[in-house]
Amino acid sequence: MTRIAFLVNPISGRQENVLTIEEVKSIFSEQDFEIQLQYSSSKENLEYLTQSCIQNKVEIIVACGGDGTINTIANHLIDSSVSLAVLPRGSGNGLATHLNIKHSLPRLHENISKSKYKLIDCGSVNGIYFFSNFALGYPADVIERYDKDNSRGFITYFKHSVLSFLSFRRKKIGLLERFTKTYSVLISNTKYMGYDLSLTPGAKLDSGKLELVHANSRLGLIRIMISTLLLGNNHAQTIDSTVIEVPYGFPAQIDGEPLQLRPPYVISSHVSKLKVIA
Q: Whole-prediction pTM value?
């Protein structure tokens, strides 16, 4: 019998991210699975629930949420025998989109029953792992605005993307051994940022590398977006590691959540660190 825990972030993506034990048991037979389902009340509580699952020898933890939910759980599963499964219910779902993971309990059951898993790479910033992306400047400012809004979904995200685009001001940072005024930095482990958007189309989860794309101005970002999204070009640089120096207050985000760390930011790639069912 397989021990499986569904950890649900109730405000991920929508304000009503609901999953019931009855729904789960209608797909996952109690003859084959020992099932837990728990709702988190905060990031700290989700960390506690994850650690409890590990201590209780749960074999599979299902992250029911978005990239931020995955990040919180998966940071405790690095180099672990516990497998991560995903039921994507977030705003962006970048990692799930890259892995072609659908919001489907039957599909999840099929993948688990067939033991369809893979070891994926990840990145880290100052020792904290990320599985989709890390960003500075404009994209992080969008996330900070979005995080403060009680509404969720694409419309809210788009609103803050526009507001931030009009108001965010670039600052001089140390990037790729140069100090220059910079508007946007994206370091990605996956192809997708969320909502099926990609500025790093060459990213792979088994390459041992990260993809970095940056823009020095609003106009520069527009050019990169048009060239990448409409013309199919790739402006990203492949990196193993880098160090980024930024001034105080320059916004940062990790897997779709605001990040508060003291710079400089030490970025590294890590090979085959997380076991994911997909």
A: 0.94
> For helices 67-74 and 43-55, what crossing angle results, to 10°?
50
pLDDT in tens, the chain (278 residues): 999 999 999 877 655 678 999 999 999 999 999 999 999 999 999 999 999 999 999 999 999 999 999 999 999 999 999 999 999 988 779 999 999 999 999 999 999 999 889 999 999 999 999 999 999 999 999 999 999 998 888 899 999 999 999 999 999 999 998 999 999 999 999 999 878 889 999 999 999 999 999 999 999 999 999 999 999 999 999 999 999 999 989 999 999 999 999 999 999 999 999 999 99
Residue 255 tokens read as 């897997």
Structure tokens at 79: 């180099």
Whole-angstrom distance, CA of residue 113 vs CA of residue 232: 37
Q: How many residues does the chain have?
A: 278
Q: Which fold has domain 128-271?
A: Tumour Suppressor Smad4 (2.60.200)
What does the domain layout of the chain look like in residue ranges? Answer: 2-115, 128-271
- What does the alpha-carbon distance between residue 251 and residue 50 come to, in Å, rounded to a whole number? 28
How far apart CA 215 and CA 217 sit, in angstroms, is 6
The helix (run of H) or strand (run of E) holding residue 125 is strand 117-125
Q: Which two tokens stand for residue 88?
A: 């994507």
Dmax (CA) of the chain: 60
Structurally, what CATH architecture does the domain formed by 2-115 represent?
A: 3-Layer(aba) Sandwich (3.40)
Q: What is the C-alpha to C-alpha distance for residues 79 and 144, in angstroms, rounded to an integer?
A: 30
